[in-house]
Write a structure and sequence with these properties.
four-stranded mixed beta sheet; 2 domains; Glutaredoxin; globular; alpha+beta; 8% strand; 194 residues; Glutathione S-transferase Yfyf (Class Pi), Chain A, domain 2
Amino acid sequence: MRLHTFTVTPNNRKVEAFVRHFDLDVEIHHVSFKDHETKTPAFLALNPMGKVPVLVDGDFRLWESNAILTYLGTKFPATHSVPTDARGRADLDRWLHWQSCHLMPAMGALKTADDKDLAAVTPLLQILEQQLAGREYLLGDLTVADFAIAAYLMTKLGRQLDYSQCPKVAAWVARMAALKGFVATQVKPPPSAA
């Protein structure tokens, strides 16, 4: 298996962090945007959208980060990251859809806004706060949903949000940031010229 990725973005980081956290047998290939790798015919054959991440498993090409996460979680059942019962799986899917339909657009709107109203994300943080009541992770145990959502709250913009009314979310983000996979995928700024 080979993961084509670009660690800097949350959709790529969440998949790469998952792979690294569980030491999955997946080769990681960081694409070169400088060389326009995602515009080449070879890459477009993997993903006609010309975007990363893309997972290649034999003759199977899978794009869309949450689909990749659930595929990996299912393919590597020892991770226990994808519930196998119908209700558990539906709950997981709910949070993956919530991330892609609510959190990601809200964060994207903030990123492009001239006047950043960081409080616009507060209602979403409050929903997470309620979900984390009495739980260490979103569904109790660590799942792919934790990777999908936490990656957005670890971005530069995510770190600027006000978590004062959501201490459970703040503690959860700190727990997620300390996981081996997220530590391994921290993007370090280049050294400053002295």
